[in-house]
Design a protein that fits this description.
alpha+beta, single chain, five-stranded antiparallel beta sheet
């Protein structure tokens, strides 16, 4: 389960998301067909970025406003989609990680929306998006040390108070990241811009298509999520 705390939706009522529960996964290196589509998408997005400033993309601009509102300087803490787009613009390519990560990144750059792919074995129960108290714990990717989030920042947290993501969609935790053993994943696409609902639904359809093509035994349940609640897709 994935839910927004009322305090978050009260301050950010424009939030719209698509949530996918995927089971029967067999994560590993991306197959050739997935890599071909991923590389083609990177080339297409790079061409768009040559004529459109990242900050002017409506979905990115909306995330920047949200980060500012909860106290995260958006030029210091980039939302996950902006970070990918900037990496693509500067380096010309985003390296392959694994099939699930590549699928998430492909869709993220296509729609300029953050896509979180969470290994459900690494989280305890439901994930709630809420404001941090500062008493929670977060273990960053590549680090064995745990730190506490800043009070007031938006976090993903599980039922054991472990933080799955900091500053909403800035950084994912080590224990929630996908790897070779991932068989169940929660995939979340989020936005605050005017067409976020439609774009999240389209992104979820893309994610479902890619999972079906490159994860033959996958089973998918998808929902649209807003402050009004869940709607099946």
């Amino acid at each position: 389960m994935f839910v927004y705390d009322d305090a978050v939706t009260g301050r950010f009522p424009a939030i719209r998301a698509a949530v996918i529960h995927a089971t029967g996964l067999a994560n590993g290196p991306s197959p050739a067909a997935l890599l071909a589509e991923y590389h083609a998408e990177q080339e297409a997005v790079a061409k768009r970025l040559a004529v459109t400033a990242i900050a002017d993309i409506p979905s990115i601009a909306a995330w920047r406003r949200v980060f500012t509102q909860f106290g995260a300087k958006p030029t210091q803490y980039r939302n996950a989609a902006e970070a990918l787009l900037r990496r693509l613009g500067k380096q010309g390519a985003i390296p392959s990680v694994n099939a699930l990560t590549d699928i998430g990144n492909l869709v993220s750059i296509r729609y300029a929306m953050p896509v979180a792919v969470v290994d459900q074995a690494g989280v305890a129960g439901a994930i709630t998006v809420r404001f941090a108290t500062g008493a929670e714990s977060f273990a960053d990717l590549g680090s064995s040390a745990s730190v506490a989030p800043e009070p007031g920042e938006v976090i993903f947290t599980d039922e054991e108070n472990a933080v799955c993501a900091r500053r909403w969609c800035w950084r994912q935790s080590a224990q929630s990241a996908t790897g070779p053993a991932t068989t169940r994943a929660l995939i979340v696409v989020e936005g605050h811009h005017d067409t976020a609902a439609e774009d999240a639904t389209a992104a979820a359809a893309d994610l479902t298509r890619l999972l079906a093509a490159h994860q033959p035994t996958v089973q998918v349940i998808a929902h649209q999520l807003s402050p009004a609640g869940l709607v099946s897709l």
